[in-house]
Specification:
73 residues; mainly alpha; 0% strand
Length: 73
């Protein structure tokens, strides 16, 4: 569990500027993997800090996906 949380925090701190499209796809998939894994742990113990981590990762994932898909006008 601690390893997973550390990976999530490292991902959250990582810089996301000057990324290629393939890097963005990889980052989006990594964020999804982390969110789903933390969610499985959250279902068991209902720790609020895990929910906060998932929310922050989701925000970062959405920013990456907006950049991938382009903004709708």
């Amino acid at each position: 569990m601690e390893l997973l949380i550390n990976q999530a925090l490292e991902f959250e701190k990582a810089k996301m500027n000057h990324m290629s499209t393939s890097d963005r796809v990889v980052a989006s998939r990594e964020a999804k993997r982390l969110i789903l894994a933390i969610n499985e742990i959250y279902k068991k113990n209902k720790d609020k800090s895990l929910m906060d981590i998932m929310k922050r990762l989701t925000v970062k994932k959405k920013k990456i996906e907006v950049r991938l898909k382009g903004r709708l006008v």
